């Protein structure tokens, strides 16, 4: 029987993701159960309910659709993504920018490869459950300058981050970080949390599953992800092209009932 309290670094390879083509020109790779794909053993990790890698061909995108009580974070890897919603917000998300849509009591939006583009847009979109429900929808978009120490706060609901420039999440025990490291260098000291989710967006890295001699060596390449509990994920070091990853810091799981 698996010990739920044992530190774990559960590696999920990019090739293991479920792939779908919901509309013409859109390719989605899902980390969790999503839409028509249902795996009862893979519905969420802590409060994270979706981590999709999306590719939209020129002219393609998602027509108007509705969300409720979901914190939606978008990080663009290549190209440009155009957002427009029913509350009048409009923005274009490019590499080096993070977008936050807090759906609250309900909001509709469209997402498309920006008009006139002749290249695909690739992005990672993550859905987090809030801990306040039925609130007015909110939108935020900001440019990000990576911190010199390699640990950049993108969005947070933690009280300790209330005065930071990070986008504000409606989840008091969760934060999203951008982690970067130069080739061959260790990753910065990562924030501790009962649950952490890491998604590698660029480069590669090696790590040990747990600290000490019992930890096994593993490696990650773009699109791979880790579901980390306790002090698992030890001594991460960037590969020969460096490393960039998105890291969720979460204090609790889904709120039910």
Can you characterise this structure?
The chain has 257 residues and is an all-beta fold. The chain folds into two domains: 16-143, Jelly Rolls (Sandwich), CATH 2.60.120.10; 145-252, Jelly Rolls. 0% of the residues lie in helices and 50% in strands. It is built from no helices and 19 strands. It has strands at 8-12, 18-20, 26-30, 48-56, 61-67, 71-78, 81-85, 90-93, 97-102, 107-113, 121-128, 138-143, 151-156, 167-168, 174-181, 195-208, 217-220, 225-229, 234-250. The strands form three sheets. Strands 1, 13, 14, 15, 16, 17, 18 and 19 form an eight-stranded mixed β-sheet that branches. A seven-stranded antiparallel β-sheet has the order 2-3-4-11-6-9-12, with no helix packed on it. A hairpin with an 8-residue loop joins strand 16 (195-208) and strand 17. The mean pLDDT is 95.
Low-confidence stretches: none
Order of helices and strands: EEEEEEEEEEEEEEEEEEE
- Structural class of the secondary elements? mainly beta
Helix content: under 10%
Q: Judging by the overall fold, what is the CATH architecture of the largest domain?
A: Sandwich
Global Rg:
18 Å
CATH level-four homologous superfamily name of the largest domain: Jelly Rolls
Number of strands: 19
Distance between the termini: 28 Å
What's the total helix number? 0
Biggest sheet overview: 8 strands, mixed
Q: What is the level 1 CATH name of the largest domain?
A: Mainly Beta
- Count of the domains: 2
